[in-house]
Design goal:
By secondary structure, the protein is mostly beta strands. Helix content is 11%, strand content 47%. A hairpin with a 2-residue loop joins strand 4 and strand 5.
């Protein structure tokens, strides 16, 4: 959902900043369950290439996706900085958990409505529906992710 469709006041809040390649992204902290190191991941056959498999998180099986691959970025070898951000997706009474593999977890920033702008239009071939907007903070641009839009269709509807 873009800023045009939603009041900026509803988008403002605290965001965990993460890094993919050299780009910064923000995940609203209300969606985050926890951040973990990358454990062994069990592969699941016949899944899309960005689905790395599943992990056992305190007795729950949690699907894990690589955000780099989801965003059509080159795949890299995981290292000590690579983390999995466990997010929750709500659908009516159902709550699902999904792990997002990211290059680096940075810090939590507070994003004010005055710092948020619309996601620019990049043409019809570029998918920006996963973005709430762009935040300008300390001379940096942080793309605010719409976690529900990014993950709902693939992992909650099914």
């Amino acid at each position: 959902m873009n800023v045009n469709d939603q009041n900026k006041t509803e988008i403002e809040g605290s965001y965990l900043t993460i890094k993919l390649m050299e780009e910064l992204y923000g995940v609203n902290v209300t969606s985050i369950l926890q951040i973990i190191d990358v454990p062994p991941i069990t592969k699941v056959p016949n899944t899309e290439n960005f689905v790395k498999g599943v992990i056992n998180l305190r007795g729950k099986i949690v699907p894990v996706i690589d955000l780099r691959i989801k965003f059509l970025m080159p795949e890299i070898q995981y290292d000590e900085k690579t983390s999995i951000v466990i997010v929750k997706i709500k659908n009516e009474s159902k709550v699902s958990y999904i792990g997002l593999i990211v290059d680096l977890v940075l810090e939590v920033v507070n994003v004010l409505d005055s710092q948020i702008e619309n996601t620019p239009s990049f043409g019809s071939d570029i998918k920006t529906k996963y973005f709430l907007g762009m935040a300008k903070i300390d001379n940096q641009v942080i793309t605010l992710l719409d976690i529900e839009e990014l993950l709902y269709e693939k992992f909650v509807k099914e």
